[in-house]
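can u do me a favor
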């Protein structure tokens, strides 16, 4: 390259401090290159544990780590907190929101994905998804606020709506949210209220496909449903949501009342992929070749959720493990290219170690591929999930504090981060206090009757 023919070292720009970006930057720290990592946030978030922040088991700081502290030992790396607005691929420049431009020799794009509401973006305010710490704290606010409002209304009026939580989407995120809501209601808050019984809360998963956890083997799908039902979580498959409004969800012509609706049904790639001006799939993921390059751009690498990479006839899933491996691969290849030895490196191949999803206390499913093949469910899978997630957390302090909180929660049946911040308003709460209009096709939630009525019935 002309830019590399001078005495200066190659400049590598990494965009995104998720799993792909962090693993790429850490590997690049050992190479004779100069690295710039750019992200809108100053921290890396361990996304697999976001749902535990959302359900008050962990605090945000326990699953996040400042990018600067992670890369402190990388003397060749600088960190910029800014937002990328676009690219000049021909001139090899990155345009930032601050107005600055960063020139690169190599670009690693690992900005992940965001929620997809399938063209119904207005649903986002009524059914938040779970991708960021901000999402997690908003979900925590809504879930906890349901119980507080119910307690207040029961005290003031003698009645309150049935506490019905609806989760749209039966993948790992939906299953984990559902199980955690059931746990918090039936175990951790069971004795904390004087006028309501949190254990009567109902949790419903609506999944549009024929199966819960559709990417898992059939035996684990069945085990997952069994464990969900044991926790009191109801599941409905082939249930296509047609509308979401304050206080209810529509499935076809059926109206299902909901005090809190959460979204776990779909994702779309970061919009930065399309800004490269290269081929993308229908989700906006960049089509990449065997070396993770967009076709015709060997200087650009795309990693993680943003990459559409196919292996053995299937697209590699957009989860943490492929992102980590892609980031490390891209860094290694850049080092070989800079040395003129890129021919030595084999095409990228994802090493699948398995999948796992936790469902609730002592309940999980795990598909183990390495170091041996096994499908586990129940307590053994749950223990495996705990160990794996502790291992991959970044930072000793985070590992220790998460382990400590899990032990405390397990033995004391208490969670310690039950904080409500922000507004005390909940979409649709006031409308649920009234009976449905006559003639409506409604799946109603039973209204808790005044104590006096119960005593005389």
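np, heres the sequence
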């Amino acid at each position: 390259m002309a830019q590399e023919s001078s005495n200066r070292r190659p400049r590598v720009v990494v965009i995104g401090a998720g799993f792909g970006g962090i693993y790429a930057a850490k590997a690049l720290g050992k190479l004779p290159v100069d690295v710039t990592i750019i992200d809108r946030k100053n921290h890396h978030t361990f996304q697999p544990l976001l749902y535990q922040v959302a359900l008050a088991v962990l605090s945000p700081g326990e699953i996040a780590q400042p990018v600067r502290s992670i890369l402190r030992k990388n003397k060749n790396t600088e960190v910029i907190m800014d937002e990328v607005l676009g690219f000049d691929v021909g001139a090899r420049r990155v345009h930032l929101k601050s107005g600055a431009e960063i020139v690169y020799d190599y670009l690693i794009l690992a900005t992940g994905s965001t929620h997809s509401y399938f063209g119904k973006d207005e649903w986002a305010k009524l059914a938040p998804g779970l991708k960021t710490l901000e999402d997690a704290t908003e979900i925590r606010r809504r879930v906890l606020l349901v119980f507080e409002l119910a307690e207040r209304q029961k005290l003031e009026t003698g009645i309150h709506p049935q506490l019905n939580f609806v989760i749209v989407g039966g993948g790992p995120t939906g299953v984990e949210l559902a199980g955690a809501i059931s746990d918090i209601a039936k175990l951790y808050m069971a004795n904390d209220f004087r006028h309501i019984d949190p254990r009567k809360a109902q949790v419903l998963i609506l999944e549009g496909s024929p199966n819960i956890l559709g990417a898992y083997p059939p035996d684990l799908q069945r085990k997952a449903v069994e464990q969900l039902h044991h926790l009191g979580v109801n599941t409905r498959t082939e249930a296509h949501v047609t509308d979401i409004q304050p206080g209810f969800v529509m499935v076809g012509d059926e109206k299902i009342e909901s005090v809190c609706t959460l979204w776990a049904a779909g994702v779309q790639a970061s919009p930065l992929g399309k800004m490269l001006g290269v081929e993308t799939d229908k989700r906006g993921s960049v089509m990449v070749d065997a070396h993770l390059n967009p076709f015709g751009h060997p200087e650009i690498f795309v990693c993680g959720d943003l990459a559409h990479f196919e292996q053995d006839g299937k697209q590699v899933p957009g989860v943490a493990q492929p992102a980590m491996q892609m980031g490390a691969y891209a860094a290694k290849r850049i080092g070989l290219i800079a040395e003129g030895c890129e021919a030595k490196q084999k095409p990228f191949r994802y090493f699948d170690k398995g999948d796992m999803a936790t469902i609730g206390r002592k309940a999980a499913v795990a598909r183990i591929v390495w170091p041996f093949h096994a499908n586990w469910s129940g307590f053994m899978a749950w223990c495996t999930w705990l160990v794996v997630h502790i291992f991959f957390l970044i930072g000793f302090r985070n590992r220790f504090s998460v382990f400590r909180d899990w032990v405390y929660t397990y033995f004391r049946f208490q969670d310690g981060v039950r904080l409500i911040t922000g507004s005390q308003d909940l979409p649709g709460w006031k409308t649920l206090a009234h009976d449905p209009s006559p003639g409506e096709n409604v799946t109603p939630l039973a209204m808790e009757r005044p104590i006096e009525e119960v005593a005389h019935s």
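Residues 57 and 415 are 5 Å apart (CA to CA). hope that helps!!
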